Amino acid sequence: MEIDLESENRAELARMEREATDSSHRTRIKSKIAKSDERIQSLAVLMLHYCAGLQNCLDTQELMKQDGQEVEQIANGLDQEVQQGEIPQDGIPKIVTEEPSIDDSDSSEDEPIYMKTDKDAEEMNGKTDLVS
Fold it and tell me: Which segments within 33-111 are labelled E, that is strand?
């Protein structure tokens, strides 16, 4: 808006310069035209800064929106894993130990086996002992 007003002012000064007959008057008008040109250029640079700032805000807003969607997707994925029994609801895996078998002669100690869910422990078919 101000750029348009200043451009109109400059056009008026240019018209006055063409009509001026006195050289001192013409010199003053040229000086005003030069100042008007500087003002137009300054307003244009200011407008570019405003546009760059606006674009930065829009880009930042878009990134925040994308980050929010990614966090939501991760949370939904974890909720699905809990619902499917892949992760215990309390978030703590069950510790299951193997009972020594007669066939297993090289194993001298019981080593803990970490299972994700009770479902995994059930698949061991009685070979395990659940410890809470």
Answer: 94-98
Is the alpha carbon torsion for 112, 114, 118, 121 positive or negative?
Answer: negative
Burial of 6: CB neighbours in 10 Å, binned 0-12, 13-18, 19+? buried
Cα 58 off chain centre by:
11
Domain ranges of the chain: 1-84, 86-132
More confident residue, 68 or 17: 17
The dihedral through the CA atoms of 55, 59, 61, 65 has a sign that is positive
3-state secondary structure of 98: strand
pTM, rounded to two decimals: 0.49
- For residues 127 and 74, the model is more confident at 74
Q: Which whole-number Å values give the CA distances from 44 to 6, 28, 36, 53, 58, in the listed order?
A: 11, 24, 12, 14, 21
